[in-house]
Amino acid sequence: MVAVTVAQLPLVIGEREHNLSLAAEAVLAAPRGIVVLPELLNSGYCFRDTEESRALAEPLDGPSVRALTELAARTGSTLVASLAILEPAAGPGVASQSEPARPPERVVNVAVVVEAEGIVGRYTKVHLWAREPEHFVAGTDLPALVPSQFGRLGLMVCYDLEFPEFTRMAALAGADLIVAPVNWPLEPRPEGSRAREQIVVEAAARQNRVAFAVCDRTGAERLGEGVGSDWVGGSIIVGQDGFPLTPTAYGRPALLSAEVDLEASRDKALGPFNDVVRDRRPEVYGF
Amino acid sequence: MVAVTVAQLPLVIGEREHNLSLAAEAVLAAPRGIVVLPELLNSGYCFRDTEESRALAEPLDGPSVRALTELAARTGSTLVASLAILEPAAGPGVASQSEPARPPERVVNVAVVVEAEGIVGRYTKVHLWAREPEHFVAGTDLPALVPSQFGRLGLMVCYDLEFPEFTRMAALAGADLIVAPVNWPLEPRPEGSRAREQIVVEAAARQNRVAFAVCDRTGAERLGEGVGSDWVGGSIIVGQDGFPLTPTAYGRPALLSAEVDLEASRDKALGPFNDVVRDRRPEVYGF
């Protein structure tokens, strides 16, 4: 059994130091294990324009990964977050009259797995939501399978979860726990209903017999400014049977932990006769 | 808008006439539209042995399809059910001392769509649950896309729904409504939780922006006899946003109807910027 925690934090756009201090507080309070933090932990989400998203991004060896590495070293935990990252891009440099040519850079939404020795795995978000293509270049690789100290983590980000192909592939690759930092925008839902984003995760856990740890955020950003959003606050840990292991904490900060049997994700049996992987019929699907 | 009904019937194993009369009562009481009946409507589910399943199966032009055709003609509705069917099989005939060689036959779990003129579409269950392989030969074709009078029906059966590849393919093929007769075996679940089988359907509806009509059954069969089962009674109609359009009627007979906007399944937009089909990244998945 591994202690898994999702830290639903009230991030503030543009306030990296504040956001990192919220993360530090949560990681120090969580039991040693796997701690998942929200998407775009360093920057916030509702950028006014591309100048702002570029200004809030940082190199992969920048202050956020350094802070997470220190926290991982101090606690012995494995930390997961997504960050707005500025990375070298292929192509010609850009020159101007006043400056020499610089190598081009691009902004990406990168999920990292950090342990005491630094980054042990990374993944660039493939499925971009809403206006994200204005700010981020989409990734081109499958979910990372990261061999952490506690088990194999399947790493993806937010909207990626809506694609059943993607969660299936992470499970087939051998993930013990699919970890996903998210920022789920709040949409109206019928009274008493669970958020559909959570339902999608619960279904994927059951259909793939794999555990999930998904970390959402709180703290409405720039409402009324056109680019703004509030958030579901639907952070959730789900067992291999598709039932949540954590209570809901809609719309408020929360630190939710559960003991998760990661080994159980390697057993794909569904009842005494069936197996959700062996029962697939690739010869019928054609893939 | 089309009136869609799921008829959660208390079937009795081995009692075809009784089961067909329950179906008739339900279809006559339902509003004209699409009426989905349970899996293995003609036979029941918990067979003692292969002799029994073979004896309860019937040809595709047998009494059950005849009865459904008459009901469709009388009501103008489109009917969906799955039946235990005896069909010709390839291979050498079987001879015995007392009888001449007969063409070989096999038993299959076939979903049919029936209108006034008879069968307009059929599909043989591909993913077999528990002991079904002892009784049924598995199908080898994708979900049928059936052009009914009310719209294009994607046709599958019970355990097929657990495979996200399958529901995805039915949606990509252009289903306006995915219809599935099921017999969901009752398993314990945490107090107050919805059945995971329903969650899987709700998630697939949202992820594919397609409506579902899934018809379960009631009437525990042969409990305590080893082969027996009780049933969830989780019949459900779900809209393209993944929210149920019908209340739950766990463990009791029920006729659940909803007006469903089938046209809306052709619009795959999720919010103003996204589209669940266009946003797929086949070049990343490799299929």
UniProtKB/TrEMBL annotation, chains A, B:
Q: Which family does it belong to?
A: Belongs to the carbon-nitrogen hydrolase superfamily. NIT1/NIT2 family.
Indicate the segments forming the CN hydrolase domain, all copies.
Answer: 2-262
Keyword terms of this UniProt record: Hydrolase
Q: Entry's InterPro entries?
A: Aliph_Amidase/BUP, C-N_Hydrolase, C-N_Hydrolase_sf, UPF0012_CS
**Record's Gene3D superfamilies?**
Carbon-nitrogen hydrolase
Name its GO BP terms in alphabetical order.
Answer: putrescine biosynthetic process from arginine
Record's protein name: Carbon-nitrogen hydrolase
Q: Which domain of life is it from?
A: Bacteria
Which Pfam family is an annotated match for this chain, by its short name?
Answer: CN_hydrolase
